[in-house]
Structure formats: C-alpha cells, structure tokens
Amino acid sequence: MKFFGLFGKQNTEVYDKGLQKTQQSIFSKLKRAIAGKSKIDDDVLDEVEEALISSDVGVDTTLKIIKNLEQRVAEQKYASADELNDMIYDEVVKLINHPTTDVSQSSGNATQVEGPYVILVVGVNGVGKTTTIAKLAHRYKQQGYKVMLGAADTFRAAAIEQLKIWAERVGVPIVSQKMGADPASVAFDTLSSAKANNMDVVIIDTAGRLHNKVGLMNELRKIKDVMHRVIPGAPQEVMLVLDGSTGQNAYQQAKQFAEVTNISSLAITKLDGTAKGGVVIGIADQMSLPVKYIGLGEGLDDLQEFNPKTFVDSLFGK
Length: 318
Description:
Elements: H1 9-18, H2 20-34, H3 42-53, H4 59-76, H5 81-96, E1 117-122, H6 129-142, E2 147-151, H7 157-170, E3 174-175, H8 183-196, E4 201-205, H9 213-230, E5 237-243, H10 248-260, E6 265-269, H11 279-287, E7 291-295, E8 303-305, H12 308-315
Parallel strand pairs: 1-4, 1-5, 2-3, 2-4, 5-6, 6-7
Antiparallel strand pairs: 7-8
C-alpha cells in the first residue's frame, strides 16, 4: 500500500481559510510592530515580543525567537522592517519543524511490524479526541488501509457510543465492551481481532481525565503492556489531542500528559474557530514533539496533515 500525503494547492487554501483568524491576529500585530520603522532597535524588538506573547506563542518560545533575532540583527548591522519580518518567519519555521513518523515511514511501516500499526490516542474530554479518531480513520481508509477502532475509554458510556456512531459513519469496524470494563481488556480484544483480520491500522481511544495522574499513568501502562503482548512494539505511536482554542491551557495539558506517558505526536484541533493558533508554535517548540495533524474544520476531511512551512506561510500571509 502507498501512503498519500501531498501538499498541493488545495491544502494551502484549506490552511489559509482555517487559520484566517490566527493570521489576522498574529500577522496584524507583527505588522503594526514593525511598520514604518527605518531601523530595527530594542524598541521594535520589544513590540515584536509583545505581539508574539499576546498571540499565545508563549513566553519561553517568544524569548527564544527574540534572542535569535537580536543576534541576526547585530550580525547584519542594518535590517529593514521587511527583512525583520522574513527573519521572524525563518525562526518560527525552524522552531516547529520536527521530524515525524507515520504508517508509511520505515519506523512505523505496516509491512515492517508484526501486525497492524497501532496508535494510542490520549487527551482530556472535550478537546475533540473522538472526532479526531474518526477523521484519522477516514484518512487512512481513503488511503487504502484497513482500519479498526478500539473503544478503551470505558469511563464514560457516551464515549463508547460516540465512537460507535463515528465508526459506522466512517465505515470501519470497532471493538468495544460495556461501560466500566477494563480498558486493557478492550485493547487486548481490539488488537487480537485486528491481527486475526489482517488490519493495517488500529486506533485506540482512552479515557480523557487528568485529575488522578497516578491512576492514569497506571492505566496507560497496563494498556501498553497488554498491547505489547499481542503485538510486540505496540503501540507504535502515542498521539496527544489538544484543543488549540484554549491557547496556553493546551500547552499546560501537553506538559501534564508528558509527565504520565511517552507522547510521540500531537494533533491540535479547533484552529479554524480561534485566533489562538500561535499556541501551535509554542507547543511544538517547548514539547520538542512533532505536530502531526491540525483540525481546520468539523468535516471528516478537515483534519490536515501538519506542514510547518505551509502553516507559517498562512500565518504570515505568504
């Protein structure tokens, strides 16, 4: 099978439309900070710093950008406003350009592991975790993969029912048990069924709660141990879903989840309805993790593969 992940004109247009509110916020603030300036001095950089922080980029990431800008401006002796804008663009691209893995790539190729490629999805309730799983299943199915879902969020009956509805809508099989069942048992049944039916991709939902970190840590560890017994090396990917519209709260959630499990990729949702998309920059930088997908709408086709350059191009109106 072949994985299709091309970034063409249509994708760029989707980015531009979905990130319009963030673009208007960040780019307009940066434009005001440097417009009409004949030289780049400390006052201009202070305004750039304020613009980035107020756009939910985050303090630490903003300070890193400003430090690099100060060095570049000093080396060039003179920089115009347009040159500074290009420098900011370059620095942001560098910060969020992390390597990623996928079913199609050598470290996670379905033909190079014993059984299907397994994605364990984590995230608090309300971030769009269930719909993200459905959109992922839809994407993989459209690309020719045989996909199965596992409803291991047995903490809420609604979570199981919602995932069943999405599985039926997307047209993929799902393994579930009743509310209150052992999540590890659901994971075991899902992977056993997926392996027996020669599935290519398995996506497992988990309970979205963080109020008891020790409990969550133990639950995820147990799920992983059971998975590994069925398919050595599973899960190949642990994806954290975050709600981009919550701004810096999304970053705090990312840090909390990183304390209880080894996250390997990020999906950031609901960016089309917010001006807080700058948080993607801060999360990608501070977490040193690849943002793999971003949500730019509610439709099944609105989960976009994350392309750092396309993302920053849209933010800067390029």
